[in-house]
Amino acid sequence: MPADDAAQRRELARAFALNQKLLVCGNFAWGRRPARADDTIDFLVMGDAIRHIAALDKCLLEFHRVVKPGGTVLLLEVSCPSRTIYRTTLARYLGRGVPYLSYWITREPKVRMLMADHWETMKDPLPPSAITDSMKAASFTRVVCEGWFDLFRSHAGRKSEA
Fold first, then answer.
1. Mean pLDDT for each 10-residue chunk of the chain (162 residues)?
2. Domain residues of the chain, as ranges?
3. pTM for the model
4. What's the fold here for domain 3-79+125-159?
5. Dihedral over Cα of 23, 27, 28, 34: its sign
């Protein structure tokens, strides 16, 4: 295989891998309805993607539509810590350290930019109360938010049995 073809395939593979994170919620982010029938999913998980959704209310209404009665939606997030010392430390680690190490290991400027962007998307997250309120507005019940280390959060809700 010619070197140009190999390079193109690697670039396509990288682009595909980088986009996989958003494929789960991508249809919602771009205003497309996912190809799922109503009431077909028992347990729906979306990880580390809430900050990429432009219309969270619409996304959660779609989740409610596709989840079976009695089914659960679990949203997992890494967010910016509220305490200054943790936020500053995380900003230096994710905003500077990880992008530099990523570039040093891969020698790919795009990887460095991607890792720097990861921190940028975390700096100004939706407050947990806004997410739980949106889940309730989408008719999920038993909505709870749990947090660990002022960094990790899970938001869970169930669709009523009908």
1. 53 48 43 68 87 85 92 89 87 87 88 80 83 96 92 93 80
2. 3-79+125-159
3. 0.70
4. Rossmann fold (3.40.50)
5. negative
